[in-house]
Amino acid sequence: MKKNYTHLVWDFNGTILDDIQLGIDCVNVMLKKRDLPTLDSVEAYRAIMRFPVIDYYRDLGFNMEEEDYYKILAPEWVAMYLAGEPKCGMMDGVMEVLETAKAAGIKQMVISATETDQLLGQLDRLGIRGYFDDILGLDNFYAASKTALAEAWRREHPEAVVLSVGDTDHDGDLADVLGADCLLYTGGHQSKERLMTRNKTLIDHIGEIKEYL
Question: Which residue ranges make up each domain of the chain?
Fold first, then answer.
């Protein structure tokens, strides 16, 4: 897989930002409030979490007919997440990879299902915004698909040789849209078993990315 990559494309949540436990804590507050079964472990969360996030909420038992996802559920989760997010740090190994790619002259970018202004603020807080040539987020807080962002970017950069890194099967979809080689990180928001269905290269530590640059 190792090539002369011109671009390293990062996912953010669960790949750069270690926010797995925060995501669990937020949804468990919502579930408990509605007398629904809570997630009792990281493994249980990773096994059920999927995209689009609205389907994940359905799987958890939220009644979309009584509570609209866009007007009630997503805003409720986002409010709790934003309150807790400043306590989240980076995944171990991220800085090493950022520095390695920079030293190799590889351009780096983020494509995320996070709302753009929120994403920029998070990258600033972590002190790593300057490593990225492009930062692409969504224009809303509903965590829908980010593949349209990838399609638009690829049309503008047809010559790019891309390595894409993420932690969900949706990141596998994004890599396919980019025509990119893909590494999926098993310590993020989805289980290794789910990631294995995408037939991509799996890594158990973010620092392993350096071996492919």
Answer: 7-18+89-212, 20-87
Residue at token pair 């709790």: 80
Token pair in block for residue 78: 């986002």
Q: Please give the single-letter amino acid code of residue 120.
A: L
Amino acid code (one letter) for 55: D
* Residue ranges of the chain whose pLDDT lies below 70: 1-2, 140-145
Is residue 8 within 8 Å of residue 106, measured between CB atoms?
yes
Q: Which helix or strand (DSSP H or E) is residue 162 part of? A: strand 162-166
The whole-number pLDDT of residue 60 equals 98
State the residue for tokens 């949804």. 27
7-18+89-212 CATH, one of 3.40.50.800, 3.90.1150.10, 1.20.1070.10, 3.40.50.1000: 3.40.50.1000
Structure tokens at 92: 């171990």
Instruction: Convert 79-105 to b/e letters by CB count within 10 Å (16 or more is b).
Output: ebbeeebeebebbebbbebbebbeeee
Among residues 25, 202, 33, 210, which one has the least CA distance to residue 104? 210
Strand partners for 8: 108, 163
Tell me 71's DSSP state.
I
**pLDDT at residue number 145:** 61
